[in-house]
Recover the amino acids of this structure.
């Protein structure tokens, strides 16, 4: 083995065990998500129910309610974590997240308008409108961020932030105008994976898979992009194409996640930072790591929301916002000091 190969292999020998531990932690979190709630179930009963055993009330709760909720939590958490890593990579801004591109606000506005105009009453009816709203907002942000045929990172973030503020104000206006719309939309707007079945997730699976594959494919190029546009171009990287592919991946991932679970904040911001803290800044490791860290954060927040208000529960979007606000303050202060 050459000296270059030795240098390249050494970090991986340290990182692989960490990734294995992360997968184990995620598996444990999945079991806890299936076991804990208003009615706690022993882990043994959970395992038995998963393998087709048991026919009592506990088995029905696990397979009929908590298993779909947990699967959706894993998918949504992975999508948000990966989208956060990509958007931070293409903008070279560690405080960027899918929310800064207006995706959450676009989905929320579309759902509220659809409920008001079409009198929708079930989350599965919101999926198409939420995804369309998220996509439309992202495309508008993309148009605002273009300059000289390329995406300008600063314009991209500023345009998304302005669009988000505008859409949030329009959403509030519709909700104030219609009490019925407020009653129907407030649960979805809080962000939740409760009372969702796999039928809500199924239409979004193709978009999630395509977005994940695109994000994994551009991971090495994001390393070059982190060195600056001029350096990346000198290395032969098509900077404009990388940013465009990254934006498409973010739209597919975050738009699908928001369509399924509502606007859940801070997962896309926090997951990449936690992975960088443990595994470093190499996007070839960062992006796969976010596929583990995102579900861990989301399922962990969902479990906390079930336990702190038993026998009722807090929506996961409320828990992530409560825990994520101090994190954002710390990151902003650290960024300013840097």
């Amino acid at each position: 083995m050459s000296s270059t190969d030795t240098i390249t292999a050494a970090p991986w020998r340290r990182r692989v065990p960490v990734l294995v531990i992360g997968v184990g932690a995620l598996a444990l979190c999945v079991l806890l998500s299936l076991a804990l709630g208003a009615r706690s179930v022993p882990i043994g009963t959970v395992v038995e129910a998963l393998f087709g055993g048991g026919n009592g009330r506990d088995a029905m709760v696990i397979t009929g309610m908590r298993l779909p909720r947990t699967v959706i939590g894993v998918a949504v958490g992975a999508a948000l974590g990966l989208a956060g890593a990509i958007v931070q990579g293409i903008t070279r801004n560690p405080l960027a997240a899918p929310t800064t591109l207006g995706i959450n606000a676009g989905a929320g506005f579309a759902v509220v308008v659809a409920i008001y105009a079409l009198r929708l009453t079930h989350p599965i009816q919101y999926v198409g409108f939420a995804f369309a709203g998220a996509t439309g907002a992202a495309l508008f942000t993309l148009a605002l961020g273009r300059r000289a045929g390329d995406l300008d990172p600063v314009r991209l973030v500023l345009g998304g932030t302005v669009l988000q503020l505008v859409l949030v104000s329009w959403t509030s206006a519709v909700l104030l105008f219609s009490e019925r719309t407020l009653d129907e939309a407030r649960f979805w707007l809080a962000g939740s994976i409760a009372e969702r079945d796999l039928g809500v997730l199924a239409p979004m699976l193709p978009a999630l898979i395509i977005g994940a594959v695109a994000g994994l494919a551009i991971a090495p190029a994001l390393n070059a992009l982190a060195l600056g546009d001029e350096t990346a171009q000198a290395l032969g990287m098509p900077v404009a194409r990388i940013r465009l592919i990254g934006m498409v991946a973010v739209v597919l991932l975050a738009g699908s996640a928001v369509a399924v679970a509502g606007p859940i904040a801070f997962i896309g911001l926090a997951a990449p930072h936690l992975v960088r803290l443990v595994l470093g800044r190499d996007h070839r490791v960062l992006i796969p790591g976010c596929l583990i860290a995102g579900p861990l954060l989301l399922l962990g927040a969902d479990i906390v929301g079930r336990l702190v208000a038993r026998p009722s529960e807090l929506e996961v979007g409320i828990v992530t916002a409560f825990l994520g606000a101090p994190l954002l303050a710390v990151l902003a202060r650290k960024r300013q000091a840097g």
About this structure: Residues 1-10 have pLDDT under 50 and may be disordered. The first strand starts at residue 146 and ends at 147. Residues 57-91 form the longest helix (35 residues).
